[in-house]
Structures are given as C-alpha cells and as structure tokens.
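User: Hey, quick favor. My workstation is busy. Could you predict this chain's structure for me?
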Amino acid sequence: MSQPIIGIVSVTDPRPTALAREREEYYEAQHNALKARLEAEGMKVIDPGAEMRPGWTDIFGMRTLGEIRHCASRLKAEGAEALFVGVWHWTEPGLTTPLVLETGVPTCLFIERNTGWAGYCEVALRHERIRGDYDEAVAWARGASAYSRLRKQQVMLWGASYSLTMEHLRDDPPHLKCLVIGDILEEGQYYLIKRAERMLAQSDPRIDRFVAWLKDNGCRIAFDDPAGERVMLTPDILRRQAALYLAARQRLAELPDYDIIGVSIKCQNELSEDWGCTGCFLPAFLPFPEDSEGPQRVISTTCEGDLKTLLTACLFNAVRPGVPSLFGDFKHAGDEYFLISNCGAASIYYAGNSTDPARVLPNVRIEGQCHCASGGAVGWDGVPGAYTVGRLVRIKGDYFMQLGVADAREVTDEVKANAIFGNMWPHHALSMETPSDRLVKVLGGNHFAGTVGDVTAEVAFACRQAGIPVVRLDNPAEVDAFYERIALM
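Assistant: No problem, here it is.
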C-alpha cells in the first residue's frame, strides 16, 4: 500500500485593505512547518498553493474562489486522500467551505497556538480541528487517509459468511459499504478448490517451490507418522495446503479490475471436512509481503467469514502500510493475561515482527491440527511489546469499534501448558488495565485484529470519519459504561 497522500492549502483574508506582509510571512512559515513534518513522516504532500505563489511578494495564502477551485482540482487530480487547511489567521468561511466540498476528502482545520494572530477555526463537513499539535496532526492524516483509501477498495469473502452457525459472524454488508469499505465481494470456495486441484493434478512446480521456500528459510515441519492413530499432516497434505494458498494468490490476480485488500476464508466445513484439508495457509501467508514467487501484496486475511474483524484488520494495515495485521481468537481469559490464538494460523509476520522470511520462518512450526479432517497448523510464539487490538462489533444495527492497547508478555512453556486445546496454534499472551472478567462482558465476538505499537489515535480518527463510535477496551471505566449502555439498547 502506498504512502498517505495529503493535501495542504492555506487561506488568507481576501479583503484588499487587510493585507499585511508580516501576516503572509507568518502564514508561509507555519504552512511550511506543517508540510515538512508530514513529509518527514513519509507522507506525500500535495501543495497546489506553493505552485501558484513562487517567489510571492504580497500574498501567500489563497484568497479568491478561482484559486480555491484550482487547488481543489489539483488535489483531486493528484489523488489526495485527506486535506489540511491552514487557517492561521481570520479569513472568510466562504473560501474554506467550497474547498472542502469540492475536494470531497476528510478535512482538518489547523491553527497554531499563537496569541499574536487571530487563528479562527472555520466550518467544514465532518472536519477535525487541531491547534498546534503536530503529533495529533500526523495521527489524523494517517487515519483520515486510511479511511479515504478503504472507501475505494474491496474485500472478498470466499465461502461468504458465516461459519458453524456462529451468529455473531452474521453481518450487514450494505450498511458497512456505507460506512467504511468500497465493496464487499462474495464467491464460493470452489474457485480456490478448482485451481488447487488443477495444480495438484498437473504437479505444478510452484507447489514444490513453495515447500522448498519454507524449508530453505528454516521453517520447522513436523509430519505425523503415517501408521499413527491420528494422521493430520503428511507431505501430500502439506502440498495440498500450499496449492490452496497459491490458488488464492492466483484468483486475486485474475481480478485486476478490483483493488482487493482483504479476504476471509470460510473454511469450515466445506474445506476442513468435505474437501478434507484446512485453509490455514491463507491467514498465515496472504498477510505477508513475500513468498516463493517473490514480493507479494499484503492481503489482510481472516477465517470463518468474519467480515467485521476483516475490516478492522484492513484498517490497521491501512494506517500502518508496512505492517501486516494480526488475526486470532480470543482464546483464554485469565487473571494475568488473555490469549489471542487463531485456530490454525495468523500472519507469519508476528513470528518475529519482521517482513523478512529468513527472520520469521525459523520461529514458525507447522504440525498437525487438533481438529478437522486433516491439515497443518502454522504456529509461533508472539514477541513481547505493545500491540493495538480491536474489532468492529454490531449491536442492534449499530456499529462500534472496540479498541485498546495491550502489553504482550513472553509466551513461556507455562503459558503454552495452559493451552491444552490448540497448543500448536500461534499465540500472543496479552494484558490490559481492564481485568479480563470485565473485558469478556463486552466483547462482540470471538476474534480480534491487531498490529504492533499504538495506533489507537489513527484508528479513532478513521472511525470518526466513518461515524463509528470507539470504545476503549483498555479503559475500565469506559468498558463498564459501555456494558451499562448496551444493556439499555
């Protein structure tokens, strides 16, 4: 995913008798300081006003409707995803409003904490107002641009939703399309099965190259004894899982007219029982930027047709384009920590918090599943540190973003000993300030999405644009208030 594309336009007083060179020099200095900070954060900045004012003598800011329309046209042509309007001193709202409406992207009105000038917050459409806080401005830019990007992109549900009569995975796709995503596509898992079986029947060399890529990079693969009581993973089953993953990449390549950024695989029961093999390689390797065929696009991936967590994962990936999103079950809630552990796989990025396969694959183990007809789970132990976790939830037709920062501890042998069921799965051991017994009262489903570090500000700004309230799971008082609120809905 590309860097955020951010527009910046400064407006000034249009009255000819109100001109002051000191004011315009102040405008230029503040405008350039904000622009420099955004660029230093890796953002592409579109600055149409600077092109119109090279070597200016009297006026720096935009001051006519014609100039405003030119700026809006340039911002749209360059694909601006969010816009800062520098309102460094009083100006007529009749300049700012047309810019916001014609540009049609999330807008932030930025002023400085300078008592020497009458910084005035104009009116705008679902805008944000930030006063002199450059850290907040950077977070807003990332969140707003992520929202704009998602509104033009698509996700795919393979096998549709939902799995195993899990009612909480049912959803309202038309409503979500109005809020946060461009389109939600659906097609049967047969699209993947057909391609995978063709590869297997033709002994497609891509399958063996993928298996060799795993081994060459140090992945540990534990095959079951063919004469054993329970045979879940054999070389043939491993090749079958690899073929299904490669079929997913192939199917996405067959849809060039779409900008698909995330998928969910239903898996159960059509794949895991009827086809006879789980789809665990999809959530393991689709959200990773490299495989045996070279660099790949990161595709956020969830299981069981979970659309709400998929969109959460896509949002996390959009605010942190270089970091694949984590996905997993809320598996265990203890007094000291809770476990995030998906039933078979999650992005191998989190086996070492790296996009380098040579660094993460030595920490990955593929071994037989504990359930389903056959298949290998892609397991690893999470890296300690701070993580943002969350998921969209729907309650009586209303959507909420449950969000918080959690601390991950080392996944010790003692931690894994408590995971009797699914101890071959990937695991993160996380804790929040909110006690687990209060946390479980408000969780809206069995899955979480996550990412490294704290991106709660960026996600909250994106949700504000979408009109989705945020509930902080790491705030006990907010969790309790939400619990009382939903009881009255």
